[in-house]
């Protein structure tokens, strides 16, 4: 059995002249919650669509749960759950009928789990799917996907458009049901909400322009990005000549620099450039990710200064 739930090698996807995935090589171990972040258009959904067979890769290869993604058998597909922001379920069906259909379709269907999950949402078996609110539909999608007992669960912005309460219920249910029951499932979770990422992430995968920009634990990421605050009593030097600068701002006469992968010698460099006082402050995940993505977003890093 492959150690990787998702294993891509130089995977490319182009839409006309646009390269949505650009030689993406990604090795995602099993049994972990991998969170995907990246600016709009970074290629997150494209990656999932290729892995699920909705799009054909232009080049490269991908294995899902150890199998070539281009020739997954129905039994192998059953082991992959997918929920995206659309929660596209047949509106005309009653919840009860839809549940029965899934029950028949999935060999590993877990009825007790379905009831455990759906119980968190105000969904009645006799309701038609089109009558459900967006949050209720999201809950139903989650219940169906979790009850199929997938080995890999792909969640592509599943809480988009939900209110704060519905978002919390969705995440609480996901964490209670899957992560803590130790059934070894792998989750690929994509979101733009850093509070959600922070709650669920074991591993952070940052995509940029269809390429892998960063992969490691969120704590490691925050350790590598620091805020330096320096006071230059005379002329502020060109701080962009310094290594690792992601963002620069002047606030009340102090230069604030968000810096990637620099140790304490960065402070010494600032002093050499004339800084009178230098201070370093750790950053939270949201601010660190924000600086990282802003820097990678073509043409915006210097505007942030
Ligand atoms: N059907 C399509 N036809 C043409 N271009 C597409 C199509 N789908 C995606 N793209 C392009 O591929 C790139 C990656 O899109 P993708 O939807 O994968 O990004 P994303 O990271 O999921 O973005 P978001 O966070 O906004 O959902 C974008 O530049 C997008 O314009």
From TrEMBL:
GO terms for molecular function: ATP binding. It comes from the Bacteria. The keyword Membrane applies. SMART domains: AAA (SM00382). InterPro entries: AAA+_ATPase, ABC_transporter-like_ATP-bd, ABC_Transporter_VariousFunc, P-loop_NTPase. It holds the Pfam family ABC_tran. It comes from Massilia pinisoli. This is ATP-binding cassette domain-containing protein. Keywords: ATP-binding, Cell membrane, Membrane, Nucleotide-binding, Transport. Residues 6-234 form the ABC transporter domain. PANTHER family: ABC TRANSPORTER ATP-BINDING PROTEIN ALBC-RELATED. The lineage of its organism: Bacteria, Pseudomonadati, Pseudomonadota, Betaproteobacteria, Burkholderiales. CDD domains: ABC_DR_subfamily_A.
